[in-house]
Amino acid sequence: MNFGFTGEDETFRAEAREWLAVHAEGAEDRRTWERALGKAGWIGLGWAQGGYGNRTATLTQQVAWAEEYARSPAPPRSGHIGENLLAPTLLAHGTQEQKSRFLPPVAAGEELWCQGYSEPGAGSDLAGVSTKAERATDGTYRITGQKIWTSLAHEADWCFVLARTEPGSRRHQGLSFLLVPMDQPGRVEVRPIRQLTGTSDFNEVFFDGARARVEHVVGGEGGGWRVAMSLLGYERGVSTLAQQVGFADELGRVVRAAVESGAVRDPVVRDLLVRQWAELRVMRWNALRTLGSSGDAGAPSVAKLLWGGWHQRLGELAMRVRGAAGAVGPADWSPSVPYELDAMQHLFLFSRADTVYGGSDQIQRTIIAERVLGLPREPKA
User: How far apart are CA 173 and CA 192, in angstroms?
Assistant: First the structure.
């Protein structure tokens, strides 16, 4: 479906598809791949107007690039947090010096970022963070605390950290958004978290007097909540549409498995497959409807609820289609040699977290109830 895409957009799409076909195959080292993307001008599409990015691109052309990337054999991006979360936040709230310092290395694929939001004692309650940043006399903040579920922290050069800079402050008050270098031995420790899938994309991050420069506070001291909320609003639109390309590929694998196993003869399975297809189309239309909008406060939460539940149900359906075979490893498995999950086993296990990470379903419903529907606020402890 080419809703909203012009002839120029499709020409741009064809260029992206051709470049990826030539360069993406065999790209294994993700940091080297980020530099290749930056050199070719594919990072920071649309930033060029400010002199920070690579090439100009309309919003629909950015969508075309993201969709073609998702369809290609290219590896998962290591730079997407810097490009899709930090960069728009700096463009909206950063000083000229911050933009000039941090955006060009992101566009070049030279500096990778991670997000220091969630904490063990706060979970999805972002206002409950307890990590502290104390102003020192040498022009720095000293950061003490712990973050958890930090994606790609083991690869990142920098972390944007939400910390409490006003002693005694509570909830949304007294928070600041700091840019923190990760290369601080003895002050920043990263511990991988092993997941159900056997992989370790998430990490714990411990700050023990880690330093951040005063000029690297985005939005001013005490302005962290406003900046943090603005950043969360960027987790929709272009990235959501690209994500749905991957979802469609996974759904296709489940459909093929249902045909091969004969499970498709079950009318209940057929109904579930059709429902998954229809709901995926609805998610696409909803993402296109809200693309580029800035006034719908509930759009990110609605999108998260839609895709989190959809993807989790797809994982469950994959196991139903596979039957008993989905619960066992390969025939030549031995206890001394770990085996890799197949694609649908990985889908099922990883999707268990979809309704938790990025803000749990309960948190998203509270946001919609309070900020969109105007219902009474939930009592806080």
Answer: 31
Catalytic positions, written as ranges: 235
The reported pLDDT for the residue numbered 123 is: 64
Q: Does residue 206 sit in the same domain as residue 306? A: no
Give 336's pLDDT tier (boundaries 50, 70, 90).
Answer: low
Rg (CA), the chain: 22
72, 90, 107 - which closes a domain: 107
Q: Which of 81, 107, 133 is the last residue of a domain?
A: 107
Q: Which domain holds residue 38?
A: 7-107
Is the pLDDT at 365 greater than 80, yes or no? yes
Question: Cα(114)–Cα(156) distance, rounded to whole angstroms?
Answer: 6
Length of the chain: 381
pTM (two decimals):
0.82
Model confidence pLDDT, tens digit, residues 44-63: 887 766 667 678 888 888 88
Distance, CA of 206 to chain centre: 21
Determine, yes or no, domain membership for 379: no
124/205 same-domain check: yes
Residue 380 lies in a domain: no
Virtual torsion, Cα 1, 87, 108, 51, nearest 10 deg: 100
Would you state the pLDDT for residue 1?
Answer: 43
* In the chain, % of residues over pLDDT 70: 90
Quick one: 215 and 167 in the same domain? yes
Cite the DSSP H helix spans in 205-298: 224-232, 238-261, 267-290
Tokens 């998962």 belong to residue: 76
